[in-house]
Amino acid sequence: MAEGIERVKCLIIGSGPAGYTAAVYAARANLKPVLYTGQEPGGQLMITTDVENYPGYPDGIMGPQMMEDFRKQAERFGTDVRYELIAKVDFSGPVHKAWSETGHEIHADSVIISTGASAKWLGLESEKKLTNKGVSACAVCDGFFFRGQEVAVVGGGDTAAEESLYLSKLCPKVHMLVRRDELRASKIMQERVFKTENIEVHWNTEALEILGETEVEGVKIVNNQSQKESVIPVKGFFVAIGHKPNTDIFKGWIDMDNTGYIQTNGKSTRTNVTGVFASGDAQDNIYRQAVTAAGTGCMAALDAERYLTEMGVI
């Protein structure tokens, strides 16, 4: 092997609940995992405040603290955590090659992808300022905090419809802001939205600004046909225009769906490339929860261990 090339049994690309859980299991199986955290160590939970739906934290926990706990547990068993990005991969041979952003070359017998997905945002300054202060990209995660209060949901696809329907069970009024004169959601989801009395759909409507200094107090909207502006008083503002999986560096190597989510084999975490496994939100466009991501991280480590055993590496 060329000088300067590092050989590892298990390379984990990405952190967050999936990556760190995979690291805990892989380390305890003596796979000596090396984990590259990526640009956002800890993933989406690093921009989440109160996490109240993860088992084992009866009083809730702050997202960053939770990821710190996960990291410490992974390191306790010997995971080599590196705060760097994997910039390029080559999965053409039996040994999988990866290069860090500083050019360090790694040859791995197995790879676990846990690069996650990032929520798409509108790009408003007020949206950034009030994130976790009433602005959210996950109704299942944060809807509980807005029980009994009016909220707004931006989007017209299945995600927006699902978020609106979920919130309609908790909130007296859900304002659905749709920039076109129709929904892109599937017919069955559209029917459910239209049948739900406390969901009001605002057609041809875009959000101009989220109002409030320390918490959301309302949203200024514009009708993009009449150009008429108005304000809706809401306490919660949910952006539901989709997520983008962080999988670009694997294109051309790993099978994905048309939006970039990695496709895995049956109920396993196996990908189309032997010895490469995918976990967390990089391969899950349905549940997208910390607990499900952690579960698939466990699965990926177990799948990698079995693979390495079959290959005689361990």
Structure notes:
It is a single chain. With 314 residues, the protein is α/β, with parallel strands linked by helices. The chain folds into two domains: 181 residues, FAD/NAD(P)-binding domain; 119 residues, 3-Layer(bba) Sandwich (FAD/NAD(P)-binding domain), CATH 3.50.50. The chain has seven helices and 19 strands. Strands 1, 2, 5, 6, 7, 8 and 19 form a seven-stranded mixed β-sheet that branches. A five-stranded parallel β-sheet has the order 10-17-11-12-13, with helices on one face. β11, α5 and β12 form a beta-alpha-beta unit. α1 runs parallel beside α7. The longest helix is centred in the C-terminal third of the chain and has 21 residues. The protein is elongated. It starts with 5 loop residues before the first strand and ends with a helix.
